[in-house]
Amino acid sequence: MLERNVRHVDVRHALVHARSCVEAGARWRVEGPDADGDDLSLVCAIEGGVVVVTVF
Q1: 2 and 18 in contact (C-beta within 8 Å)?
Q2: Coarse DSSP helix, strand, coil percentages of the chain, rounded to the nearest 5 percent
Q3: Average pLDDT of the chain?
Q4: pTM
């Protein structure tokens, strides 16, 4: 997140307002807008909650 200047609020906004959510084994690829409306893609692993693995 720090390398790409993605804030926690951006990740939350993309997850809450996701346009696409596709299961890929034990992971999920989620695409949605960040807080500024820019596209954000996340790869998440779900283990007792949501753990963001990578952001791009």
Answers
A1: no
A2: 15, 45, 40
A3: 89
A4: 0.81
